Amino acid sequence: xxxxxxxxxxxxxxxxxxxxxxxxxxxxxxxxxxxxxxxxxxxxxxxxxxxxxxxxxxxxxxxxxxxxxxxxxxxxxxxxxxxxxxxxxxxxxxxxxxxxxxxxxxxxxxxxxxxxxxxxxxxxxxxxxxxxxxxxxxxxxxxxxxxxxxxxxxxxxxxxxxxxxxxxxxxxxxxxxxxxxxxxxxxxxxxxxxxxxxxxxxxxxxxxxxxxxxxxxxxxxxxxxxxxxxxxxxxxxxxxxxxxxxxxxxxxxxxxx
Length: 257
Ligand SMILES: NC(=O)c1ccc[n+]([C@@H]2O[C@H](COP(=O)([O-])OP(=O)(O)OC[C@H]3O[C@@H](n4cnc5c(N)ncnc54)[C@H](O)[C@@H]3O)[C@@H](O)[C@H]2O)c1
Known about the structure:
By secondary structure, the protein is an alpha/beta fold. It has eight helices and seven strands. 45% of the residues are buried.
């Protein structure tokens, strides 16, 4: 496969959950494509490491610690982005957590609220302040929310994660309808099982080769973070100028079976 190239020169991109996994890969891809990138994450140490990595590769990046479950912090994140770089063109609302495998019957209310506050309300907060800024600028923008295959199908023992990821698609579609006339395109991606620290925490490495990869994925392998970054950049580029509210599966066919 040849190298995929995008040009985001002169644009500013914001990524939440950018210290690891898909967020880090997307931040790196935006930087490689010429964007100025704001990386944000709740994990300050990993975030600093990510920034240093991308800077050493020549990217123009900065970072802010932000817990997306805290609406005030998200508001401040967008304000600081604009203070530093003067604009906001693209946003990848990616921060999320996975729950421990549990039946609904065994789930405590605070575990439910924890996942919802990050995976669903966190995306709502991010979109809210991003849309306000993009409307103010007047030239539009692009927002991509990171849902999941769990936004399209049920998964036993992951009910609240699945509910948050389904809910995110509803938020995405509704926000896309509200913001489209202002030239702000809002979409979502629904990754399959991607080789990230989150997945490695969920299952041990042997399981990754058997249960998740070979048996369940039509392409017979896990996805890479770069394959997700490509989808994010395409949805933020002019190449997808007529696409809004789309829950784009990047799952090697898992959910079409
Ligand atoms: N890995 C997969 O197979 C997979 C599949 C589908 C969807 N997803 C979704 O993709 C997104 C990224 O997943 P990943 O696999 O790269 O995860 P990861 O755990 O490897 O990275 C997630 C990052 O988000 C950060 N984060 C967690 N809570 C946060 C908070 N409250 N505020 C700000 N940052 C926070 C973490 O510190 C971490 O750096 C998540 O929303 C996840 O639900 C993952």
